[in-house]
# Entry
Amino acid sequence: MEKVGKFFSKLQVKVENWLSYTSAGVIATMMAITVADVVARRGFTYHIKGSYEYVSLLFVYLIFFGLAFAQRTDAHITIGVLYNRLPRIGRLRTQAVTCIIAFGMLATLTFFSVESALFAYKIQDTLLGAIQVITWPSRVGVPVGIGLLALRFLAQLIGIIRRGELLEEVAAKERTGVEGL
# Structure
């Protein structure tokens, strides 16, 4: 059973890393589209049709594909005024409750965002602008990113329960290259 757990943990890390790199690639793509549109407008008085629509839809991948990676590496904004003063057991309990609540909310959001993406696919939903741009590929990014974030919270909850691991300790081990995910 432990081998299966380690396999899924490593797979989850690889998927989170891959989606994080994809998110970075999306930034480059958005910049290229925007620069090309500006150059076309200023240099040739030509507008690249759909550039605004495609850039706005790419924001979904930029935002949602990096969430689980940021959670794993403890890169989200935190305010530790009270948390840092708690004893270790208090911090473990606080993180466990946070993980339970976050997992429940994110699993629910994942379910409803899958429904939304499927509905957009079924009706072939489009953005109306310079050209019609289909929205369902972008909508698929929401449940993928949120679902992976939900799984990250679940994995962290399991780490808290089984091994008494605090998120900040696991993230510090990862940054220094020490095994412990």
